[in-house]
Design brief:
single chain; 56% strand
Length: 295
Amino acid sequence: GTTLMSTFLEVTGNGSFTNSPGSVFNAEVGAHGTNFSTAFINQPSATFNFQPTVYSMSMGSFSNNGIVNVNGAANGLSLSLAGGGTSSGTFNVSANKTLVFAGGTNLGAASSITGAGNVHFNSGTNATLAGSYTISGLTTISGGGSPASATFNMSSVAFSNLTLIGTLTGSANMTVLSGGTAVLSGASALLGGTGTLTIAGSGAVNLDGGSLNRAVTNQGTLSGSGVIGGNLTNTATLAPGNSPGCITINGNYDQSSAGDLNIEIAGTTPCSGHDQLIVNGSVTLGGDLNVSLLG
């Protein structure tokens, strides 16, 4: 059946809330909000529709084996899965909505997260994802006192926009899509794992103090200050520094005939007065060296 909620509902205690097979539950969160501190179980072929009108919604632990839709007319609201959990089902996140994960989260090979909305991994989250992930909004992996960790173990994953303050790792080959942006912000930001990272077309990655600890193929723009632990192949634009700054490559650097290395000079001190590229492996240079004077 279908259950509609438009006023206040709070479910507490040691029990659980179960959406039975074939059921459709529409959570129309209105002026007083709705929260589940108990376990939420969405059984196979069950559908849970989060359709906020005023407030966001929080749940305790979750087990999703059906479909969860984060949609509705109101923009800027979120469904928070605060207690961690598991999924072999589907999460659909509509534009201008946010799905928030916290705690220990394990999304299996049959699971999927898709849509034009946003996905946020809260501080302290330890998430493992093995299914499909096709989010065209913003993916955020938080920092804070206990930075979030997300492990992507599917064969490949593509990000339209990524803000990384915690750790992103796994065996998946990762792509920042053309027109997309990834920012690795602060010393706790680490993009590692055993796969490759491809920066496609007009995509851009900024090392804002973070680290890339995997092989990188740059077909777009790679900039900022930080460390690249693997090999870097540059067929587009490498621009060390945030006017100015340094990038250190602990692997090899291969710049093709189509590649550009952009260096800014404002003074004599490395990393603060002028850009610097430090390569601790082998170097193969083609393409262009572009030097500009600041100030």
